[in-house]
Design brief:
Length: about 200
């Protein structure tokens, strides 16, 4: 039985049903609790450039710590995918614009499916990352340590969480990001109702 906190990244850069991206994040947070994943902490909301550059409008990103309620990581991921579908997410393009994106970043100190496979995915060259996606859950998320749009919000709620394979904590990983990348990420003035 899993009792470790699950770390979830939330992102949106398209509205749906008349709601702006920030409102989609708010709706997703409510859906997490309604689906039996009580939200324990939420970062500030941040405006971030689309990744990869030029792939769409700016994103609103946040991170949340949720209680998995005894679910294993695959079951948590299934809940996240169900919420995405309920909120109108259609998976057409890898790294494309979306109404909602919920990524399971980590679950305690779990390394899945095993340390060798996790390391292989974490160390993929950037050109390969854009072409292939894993066919199973990899934890911690293999791109976690490279993405400011994840690390900066995650540092709001879990700066001391340590990557179980590398030993680096979130604060250290965020500090190591390129200054130019960090300069493009800023907190929204308010959560609900911000554009």
């Amino acid at each position: 039985m899993y009792n470790s906190t699950a770390m979830v990244a939330l992102g949106a850069n398209l509205g749906a049903e008349g709601l702006a991206p920030v409102q989609m994040i708010v709706r997703a947070l409510a859906a997490l609790s309604a689906a039996g994943l009580p939200v324990r902490a939420v970062s500030r909301f941040f405006r971030t450039p689309a990744f990869p550059a030029g792939s769409g409008p700016d994103f609103v990103n946040a991170c949340a710590a949720v209680d998995p309620g005894g679910r294993d990581p695959e079951a948590v991921l299934a809940v996240l995918h169900g919420i995405e579908a309920d909120l109108g997410r259609v998976r057409l393009t890898r790294w494309g614009a979306r109404v909602i994106d919920l990524d399971l970043l980590a679950m305690g100190d779990a390394i899945l499916p095993d340390p060798a496979t996790e390391a292989e995915w974490r160390n993929l060259p950037p050109e390969t990352q854009a072409q292939v996606a894993p066919d199973r859950l990899i934890l911690p998320h293999p791109r976690l340590s490279e993405r400011g749009f994840v690390l900066i919000p995650l540092a709001d709620i879990a700066p001391l969480w340590r990557h179980p394979a590398t030993g680096q904590n979130v604060a250290t990983m965020a500090k190591a990001l390129p200054e130019a990348e960090k300069a493009q990420i800023w907190p929204l003035s308010q959560r609900a109702g911000a554009d």
